[in-house]
Amino acid sequence: IKQSIVLDLPDVTATPLSQEAQSIKISVDKQGQYHWDENFIKLENLEEKFSQLGHQRKMSSSDSTPSVQIYADQDVKYSKVAQLMSLAQSNGITKIGFIVDGENKQVAQK
Fold first, then answer.
1. Phi and psi of 24, rounded to 5°?
2. pTM for this structure?
3. What is the pLDDT of residue 93?
């Protein structure tokens, strides 16, 4: 059984980014709930995962900073997206991109 999260992504045009070695897909649905890949995750568990990733990056000899791709429903409160970005950044994850819906699925990176 394949599960999916219904999101109404905003239509914009952006330059596609090259694929990163490790990319984490996080969705924020219309109700403001977070999903790691396609699995629901509570905010406190999301913070734990970001902390683990930040720690792994510090222990790694290479600069293997993971990127976070945010899929946010266009009707979600901005504060939910800002909170997600803040959690990632406070744990050393600075490669954050936004997935948008346009003529082609494209990524705009911060």
1. -110, 125
2. 0.69
3. 86
